[in-house]
Design brief:
6 strands, elongated, alpha/beta, 43% helix, six-stranded mixed beta sheet
Length: 195
């Protein structure tokens, strides 16, 4: 009796193995495409890099979502890292170079260093409009955005008020030089400086 069951099972597998395998492959492909289309296809509204480790970023994420008026279909990316550690600085620079960061928040010294290295966008000569609201310094860039030396003073960051969850004494918010969501990033910079 057991031999008959084994033979039936073996013959069933032999007979329908290709159909079962094809069915599994089709099911896996369907799950893969559903994941890409509906789950991973969220548009990123803005990506923020905080140069200080934060255990809980939900407060900052809610603040950013409120400022931008985004719904659940748009993603807010908050990356935090202790920039004082050499290996972490390399990670942060990799994120910036990979164009996955729009807004960078850090201490004045950190932001000056990032600006001198060419990672922050020049916010223009708006210091005269709001004296003391901008972090400005001397740096001269070539057409590719590389620092070539000292030159006319340029403003590359805005002093920020209170930012949810960020425990910096005097945070500065700047725009990454290769930001992909510039409009939302500028709205966020303006909110942080007015707050």
């Amino acid at each position: 009796m057991e031999e008959k069951r084994e033979n039936r099972l073996v013959s069933f597998i032999k007979k329908y193995a290709a159909a079962l395998l094809a069915g599994c492959v089709i099911l896996l492909l369907a799950v893969y495409f559903i994941n890409i289309i509906f789950v991973q296809n969220q548009k990123t509204a803005v990506s923020v890099l905080v140069l200080e480790f934060m255990e809980d970023t939900s407060g900052l994420e809610n603040q950013v979502r409120e400022v931008l008026g985004t719904g659940g279909d748009e993603e807010i990316e908050i990356r935090t890292i202790s920039a004082g550690v050499g290996a972490n600085k390399a990670v942060a620079l990799t994120w910036i170079r990979a164009e996955v960061v729009d807004v960078i928040i850090g201490e004045e010294e950190q932001m000056t260093e990032y600006a001198q290295a060419g990672y922050l966008k020049d916010l223009g000569s708006t210091e005269a409009e709001q004296p003391g609201a901008f972090l400005c310094g001397l740096a001269e860039y070539d057409k590719d955005g590389n620092v070539t030396g000292t030159g006319p003073e340029s403003c590359f960051g805005k002093y920020a008020g209170e930012i949810a969850g960020v425990r910096m004494e005097k945070p500065v918010a700047g725009l990454a030089d290769n930001a992909s969501n510039v409009e939302n990033a500028l709205r966020l910079l303006n909110f942080f400086s007015e707050n």
